[in-house]
From TrEMBL:
GO biological process assignments: coenzyme A biosynthetic process; pantothenate biosynthetic process
Pathway(s) annotated for this protein in UniProt: Cofactor biosynthesis; coenzyme A biosynthesis
Domain Ketopantoate reductase N-terminal: 3-145
Protein name in the entry: 2-dehydropantoate 2-reductase
The enzyme's E.C. designation: 1.1.1.169
Length: 302
């Protein structure tokens, strides 16, 4: 399968690099990372040990692929959708592996070629051309509105051929909300407390994370998704355990003084909750604190 990975950050590089062991992969990202990959390949360490040679580019102009994986930050989704629907770009299927509920935005530009996806692998860029896997998670792909899907099965089989743990899931609406609820619990709390995910197994961080996750599950139920607070909490604990040694993507963003995905995670929970008349005070506080941090550094768009 020809795979284009749009967004060669930590997760995109890890997933793309692992897929490159079996498939023809092009990573689209920024220099100096993509330049180093072109010169010397991509090295994967941690839970995997591989040195692979995917193509690497800083633009998608004229590229074609069976599958495009979208791994850019949630706030760059519109730019990704515009690039992938641009002239001369020929993509059969698109699958988001992003945090947040970004697929709607992709679908608006790319139509029903868009599949939903979730990934719980832990990944960190250590240097240009080097990515470390800090937690072996799982990838799920499926139809945005749920249901059995041959094309999702094909994508999952291609992932498995390359040694990734991946399943097609007919229940993606619930899975996306479960992932959002887990990210609502882990990302902002770990970023503000400056701790690795494993620290969220112990109080007091565990209590804050659990409150944020339960609030998100409540909003999910208001949206018609069958996700109990208990199930969401169990998923939170599983991911905290599986990625204990990982710095969450938001903790990595804060360490690098980059804009975070707090609006797309805790902010999205607050906004969707508001539409249903639900208060989500823990998510609101987390979003406000990270928002204040971003504002103080001029990282938020005006
Ligand atoms: O999705 C993640 C993230 O960091 O954004 C998890 C699964 C929480 C891994 O850290």
């Amino acid at each position: 399968m020809d795979v284009l990975v749009f967004g060669a950050g930590a997760l995109g590089s890890l997933v793309g690099g692992l897929l490159a062991r079996e498939h023809a992969v092009t990573l689209v990202g920024r220099d100096p990372h993509v330049g180093r990959i072109r010169e010397d390949g991509l090295r994967i360490s941690g839970e995997f040990d591989a040195h692979v040679g995917p193509e690497a580019a800083s633009e998608v102009d004229g590229l074609s692929a069976d599958l495009a994986l979208v791994t850019v930050k949630a706030y760059d989704t519109a730019a990704a959708a515009a690039a992938l629907s641009g002239e001369g770009v020929d993509i059969d299927l698109v699958c988001s592996l992003q945090n947040g509920l970004t697929e709607g935005e992709l679908r608006a530009a790319l139509g029903d070629r868009v599949l939903a996806g979730t990934a719980t692998y832990g990944a960190e860029l250590v240097d240009p051309g080097r990515v470390r896997c800090t937690g072996v998670g799982r990838v799920h792909v499926g139809e945005l509105d749920g249901g059995e899907s041959d094309r999702a099965e094909r994508v999952a089989a291609a992932f498995r051929e390359a040694g990734l743990d991946c399943e097609a899931d007919p229940g993606m609406p619930r899975r996306r909300w479960e992932k959002l609820a887990v990210n609502a619990g882990i990302n902002a709390v770990s970023a503000l407390a400056r701790v690795r995910n494993g620290a969220l197994a112990e109080p007091p961080a565990a209590d804050v994370a659990e409150r944020a996750t339960r609030e998100a599950a409540r909003v999910a139920r208001a949206e018609g998704v069958d996700l109990t607070g208990g199930d969401a909490r169990a998923a939170l604990r599983t991911v905290v355990g599986e990625t204990a040694g990982n710095r969450s993507s938001m903790f990595q963003d804060v360490r690098a003084e980059r804009r975070t995905e707090v609006d797309a995670i805790n902010g999205a929970v607050v906004e969707r909750g508001r539409k249903h008349g639900l208060e989500t005070p823990t998510n609101r506080t987390l979003a406000e604190l990270l928002g204040a941090w971003e504002t103080a550094r001029g990282l938020r768009p005006a």
